[in-house]
Each structure stands twice: as structure tokens, then as C-alpha cells.
Design goal:
Length: 456
Amino acid sequence: MRVSILTDPRRPGPGGRPEGRPPQRPAAKSTQKPLASITPARLAAFEILERVATSSAHSDDLLYGSGLALLSQADKNLTTALVLGTLRWQIALDARIKPLLQRPELTLAQPVQTALRLGAFQLLHMDRIPAHAALSESVELARAAGHPYAVGMVNAVLRKLAAAKPPGQRLHESTAAFAERLGHPSWLAERWVTNYGRATALAICEYDQQEPRAGDLFSQEDTEEGGSQPRLDDGSRLVGELAAASVSGAQRIWDCCAAPGGKTLLLAQRHPQADLLATDVSSYRLRAMAQRLQRDVHGKKVRTIEADASTLSEDEGLFDLILCDVPCSGTGTLARNPEIRHHLRPSDLARQAERQRAILSAALLRLAPGGRLIYSTCSLEPEENEQVVKVVFEGAKEKTGISLVSAEPVVARLQEQGVLAAEANVAKLTRDGFLRTLPGAGFEGDGFFAAVFVRG
Ligand SMILES: C[S@@+](CC[C@H](N)C(=O)[O-])C[C@H]1O[C@@H](n2cnc3c(N)ncnc32)[C@H](O)[C@@H]1O
């Protein structure tokens, strides 16, 4: 790209995605004005989509950090809608674009593909954007990105797309067909059909295609002070509340994979008397969390240390409450983190599980007698959830005297105490004694799993 509208985006976003690193390729700080024929929002959206496609950068770092500082609020909003929408619908957009190409068997240059996707998203999903703006700016983006030979093709494909009738819905759709229609890799939808049934898999895919909505599980707003902090998603908050309510009057708490700190803050607010240690292996994420905690009267008291949870110093002793909110695939958060579906591979699940088993096994050894540990993920995949819990429990129960207890009574108590709304269907929040939220399937929020261990 010859021009850049982004400033250095190294500040972290408000969180929600499972984990991350600072963007690997900082944007050049630009003093240039964007090309006259490309509006700032589309230029910024194009650049962010390019970075997400070609590096390990995360869209939320680029959108919610300082990278968009040069844009007006209206342009920031449009950039966010364009980026997240294009990422959500990318698979479905590619399926509509491909048959319109003269040589569909050839791989398009990445910037040309991005310009096409961005144009197609606006034409098919953004009612308020005039077709000519979507079309002509995608053409200009391809040209400005150094692909003038592709300008005619981008123009022709988007014109055909604008004129095409929307595809009719089939009477019976295969899993692969609904996965493609709803912008999901079919391997992921197939897994959800196997694990949760077709109706639930379809509901999850539909939920993932929307902006995350504010849920109604809780009777009050969460209690973050200052007003400048992001509201916790209902799934994330439920895990935090479950952990906080699992031990009353806890004195020593360890949040072992803590950043960006949403649940840490909740624990600090629910247990203001406790010595709360929050660790994270990423110095970048830990620093951002420490700043966030400083803005809250209870958060200020949290000790933050950069540490690998599987090798925490023995000097830290034992804890009567541990939250082990491990790094995971994040498949329960695709509405919020749409690009995960494009990077994740089936083989990643085994790698995640290995890391999760190492963290959980080590954290269980730090549990004081009578203490409880909450293991949680924002993954919908059994390999990272029930299977990790089972393997670690089998290996540790003799050595450590731990047992697994049902999360159900704690969730029921949260409702009796008025934390959960009276109308909330508590029975639907647990499955086989584990907490299990399924986005879109009777629950408005991210998909979370949690298991409760107790040391005898
Ligand atoms: C799912 S996120 C935690 C979200 C956080 N609990 C919240 O509610 O805001 C997982 C975190 O684990 C951290 N992490 C990954 N491996 C770790 C390890 N071995 N020890 C400690 N933290 C780790 C990642 O850097 C990431 O910040």
C-alpha cells in the first residue's frame, strides 16, 4: 500500500479474545493524506484486513488501539463495521466471488482479494452504502495497492455481484452448505453438529455472524468503576462470578492466566479482603492489564506478576481460590473475534490441549486444603474442555486428593442471591456438572466452559 492511514497500533484493545501478541509489523506512522478517491474508513479497513491476512496481527488490537487515532468517530465506527463484517462473512463472500472470476482456479494476489471481499461485503450486507461507492473504492484500493492490471477484473466481478440475485435458501441444507452460507469453515460446523446437534450448531453459526449483543443473564450491570472500561460479556462474567462464589471469604486468590483482566477485576471486587495475585506469561498483556486494574479501587490492590502458570515460584505458597482461565482456540468467541475461524486448524486443538493440561496440572498443586480451582476456556471443543479435565483429574487425584464437583449448585446460588436474573434458565447453563454456555442457543454471549475442582 502506498499510503497508510493507521498510526502505530501497539496498544492493546479491550480484550475478549483468548490471547495475543503485539502486532508483529507496526504500521508506518504516516503524515500523508489518503488518496482523494478512497475514503479514510475504507482505506483503514483495507489496511487492517491486509494485516490480519498476512501477519499475526489481531483485528481488535488494530481497531481498538491507537491505530485509528487519525480518524473521526464516524469513520472509526465505519472502519470497525467493515473489518469485522468482512472477516465474519469472508468464507461466504469468497464462495460468491469465485464463480464470477474468469480463471477461478488461479490464486488472486492478497490485496486484490481483500479489495474484492471488502467491496462484496458492502454490496451484500451494508444497506446504507451506495453500490457505486463500494464498487469504485474497491477498484481504487486495488490500484493504490499496486495492482492496476486487476482494476478491470475487480470492477467486472463487483458489478456482476451487485446485479446478481441473492441465492435462494435450499429446502434441506447439508452442514457444509450452511457453514458456507454462514461464513464458517465446514470442519468446525461439522464438529458442532457432532457435539451439540444440528439445530444448536446452526444457532451458533447464526449468532457468530452478528455484532455481539448485550446479554440479559445478570440482574445488574457489572460493577466496573470509571465507566471507561468495557462491559464484560455475559459468558465471561458468568465464569468470573462462578469462580468468585465458589469460595466464600477467600484469603489467598490466584488468577493464573489473567490478562486482559476482566475476571481478575471481578474477583477483586467480590473479594476485597483477599490477597489477589494475577499472573500472565505475556509481558505486553500483563502491562495493559496492570494499567486497567489501576483504574479501579479494588483492582489497585491486585499484585501482578509476569509468570508462566506452570512454573510459579514456590515462594508464592498455596491458594484457597484459583482461577485457571487458560489460553484456548477461542471457538466460543467467533462473533467477537471473527478471524479466529480463518487461522484455526483442526490440529491446533491437540496443541492447545497439551498446553492446557500442563497449566492445569501445575495449578492444582498450588491449591490449599479445602480450596477450589476453576478451570475455564472460551472454547466449544471437548478436547480443550471435558477431555483436559478428565485426563488431568485421573492423573492428579491420587497425588493431590482433589475431586471434581458440580458447578450447578454455585450457579443456582448466584440466582438465589439475585446476581443472575430471576428469568435466567439456570438448568441450561450447566451440562454434566460443568458450566457450558452455547452462543445463540438460548444464551446471548460467548461460549464458555468451566469445571470446579476441590482439594479435600
Ligand atoms: C483466555 S486469556 C485470559 C483471559 C482473562 N482471564 C480475562 O478474563 O480477561 C489467556 C491468557 O493466558 C495467558 N497465558 C498463556 N500461556 C500462559 C502460561 N503458561 N502461564 C500464564 N499465562 C499464560 C495469555 O497470555 C492470555 O493472556
